[in-house]
# Entry
Amino acid sequence: MNTALSGASLKSTNRQKGVSLVIALVFLLVITVLAIANLREVTLESRITGNLIENKQLLQVADAATRDGERRTVARGPQEPTDNCSNIATGKLCLLNRLPDYQIDMTDSQVYSPSDGTTMHGTAQWYSQPAPSGEADGSTENPEYGNMALGIGVFRYEVNGMASSNGNQAAVRTTVALNSKGLIEEK
# Structure
């Protein structure tokens, strides 16, 4: 009788070893699927982070170009705008005679090239134009005729900068207010 029992017990043990192998393989498959899903998520997050860093760098370059345009606008003081910047040397003021628009138009602009040897992420351009001051509605800050020619009153300029790299673009817009003595905000 002992022999019959031990034979049945042996067959049962062999079957259990086969079931445990199948269960282990199923768990291994589940863990592998979870690992692949997490790997894809990490890869996506890395790409998002890389794009965020590149966009921030582009924004900083556009801001640097805009600040250069502000500095050149302030240094020159109030002046008459021109129709294009084609004859203006790099590093000089490009003050365009055009109506301000929501969309930044870089067709006629100055190339930003730092003079201190700074390396930039991408390329940058800027331009400056007179900002609206209410003359169309009769509410201008400089109502007296001839003040622009005399350099008297408040003059506002819109400075726009744009940087581009690898098909991405970042733009910055700001305004500068000047009177005949220079930057108003310094007072």
